[in-house]
Amino acid sequence: MNTDTLAPDTQLVHLGRDPAANHGIVNPPVYHASTFIFESVAQLLETRRDRASGAFEQFTYGREGTPTTRALEDAVTKLEGGYRAVVTSCGLGAICASLTAFLSAGDHLLIVDSLYGPVRQFCDEFLVKFGVEVSYYDPLIGSDIAHLVKTNTKVIYLESPCSLTFEMTDVPAITKVARARGITTIMDNTWASPLCFKPLSHGVDVSIHAATKYISGHSDLMLGIAVCNEASFVPVKKTASASGYCGGPDDIYLALRGLRTLGIRIARHQETATAIARWLQRRPEVSRVMYPALPDDPGHAIWKRDFTGASGLFGAVLKPCSEVQFAAMLDHMELFPMGYSWGGFESLAVPTYPATLRSARPWTEKGPSLRLHAGLEDPDDLIRDLERGFARLVAAR
């Protein structure tokens, strides 16, 4: 079947599976494997040559993948228009493998100031220790990033929208600068999923997903995926393998299963998030809502230009209140329990502290902020839960 001409929702159903090759079984089987048997020295040497050449077509050892791994990699690669993908043990693993694939001692990394916290920790505590120079840039910098590029700049790392604060980065403007100077670009695309934004078509070299989140959709696995263009695949694959970033077979199978419903889930997440975000804008306790799909969001023009949809993750800044009031709101939420991660079927809330994670663009908001994930529950029920939370906040004065 030629899936290239199919709509994304149809591709989600058919990519990464071949019933004819598996006795007519609809879903690819789960291969639990560490060891692959070779029938001859010649065959064993052929697999070694395959790996050394960077082809990575043949299966040699479980750490480097099984047919189940390949099915998920092929499916997400097709969805994003990449060359090949690398599955890792978690989203952070995909990011770390991709960064270290292109950075050595003496190199310079430009990384967005509003990135996912654990990545900042990896850069500041590990990359720096091994001689990589790390600089943070304003997420709104656009083409002016050219002024920050040095002769030893090897990688520019992007997010759009940004973690916790949801600014929209002008991805094409930054990748244009990077390509002109031979700099590799890596982007975390987890928020948008493979359906709402395709980084490689906007000049990015490696697109990262925490498959733990929307690709899985059920909050029950840990997995990462790096979708690469042709030039970046071998470095990322070799680094991930050498670093031991391999995904577990059952998690990979569950991610494949979650992928089948990604289209209808993302649409519902966006619909619910939009309804809640608009409701929050009318609340007297709210200073502003951070969701680029809203027409009055500062990043809406870039989102509308480059993205085809939005997910269910967004933020809000409340008007100044005490810590006691803020806790009174969040402590007793019924449908928005506090928990890290997002992208599952359930709604979540978590307080955020952007000021502690910024250096290039200071966070100046006076009130507390929170991140909300709109799950698949009824929007009216979710709004009532938030309404009760605001009532507790007001009563705690």
From TrEMBL:
InterPro entries: Cys/Met-Metab_PyrdxlP-dep_enz, Cys_b_lyase_bac, Cys_met_metab_PP, PyrdxlP-dep_Trfase, PyrdxlP-dep_Trfase_major, PyrdxlP-dep_Trfase_small. Gene3D superfamilies: Aspartate Aminotransferase, domain 1, Type I PLP-dependent aspartate aminotransferase-like (Major domain). Its cofactor is pyridoxal 5'-phosphate. Keywords: Lyase, Pyridoxal phosphate. One of its GO terms (molecular function) is pyridoxal phosphate binding. Pfam families: Cys_Met_Meta_PP. SUPFAM superfamilies: PLP-dependent transferases. PROSITE patterns: CYS_MET_METAB_PP. Pathway: Amino-acid biosynthesis; L-methionine biosynthesis via de novo pathway; L-homocysteine from L-cystathionine: step 1/1. GO terms for biological process: L-cysteine catabolic process to pyruvate; transsulfuration. It catalyses: an S-substituted L-cysteine + H2O = a thiol + pyruvate + NH4(+); L,L-cystathionine + H2O = L-homocysteine + pyruvate + NH4(+). PANTHER family: CYSTATHIONINE BETA-LYASE-RELATED. Belongs to the trans-sulfuration enzymes family. This is Cystathionine beta-lyase. It comes from Piscinibacter gummiphilus.
